[in-house]
Amino acid sequence: MEGKKILVAEDEPNILRSLRLVLEEAGYHVLTAKDGEEAFSKTRDEKPDLLILDIKMNKMNGYEVYERLQSDVFPRGMPIVVVTSLGDEDEKLEALKSRIATVITKPFSPYSVVDKVTELLRTI
What we know:
Layout: E1 5-9, H1 13-25, E2 29-33, H2 36-46, E3 50-54, H3 62-71, E4 80-84, H4 89-97, E5 102-105, H5 110-122
Helix pairs in contact: 1-5, 2-3
């Protein structure tokens, strides 16, 4: 999986740093975005192999980013991992129905995210 490009879109600086660190340690090339607009722009311009997308972000939430990607330049087959602090099961089901690869609920271990990313990238 070394060299695969991952975009992490997260507005919480500590989580963003933690994910970047563990993903880079695992050999991934990591791009970051601190809000939804930046996430959309970087996904469109950089075409990552996988997107880790927080639901609650400034300027544009994760679902809005996803919808804009669907109607614009969504790279077919690119897995999207949704990160949310919302523990609501209905929201998880809604996300999965929207063809999102998986939902990770905060708090989480950054290493569990690396494991999930590696698993998802093996399938593409």
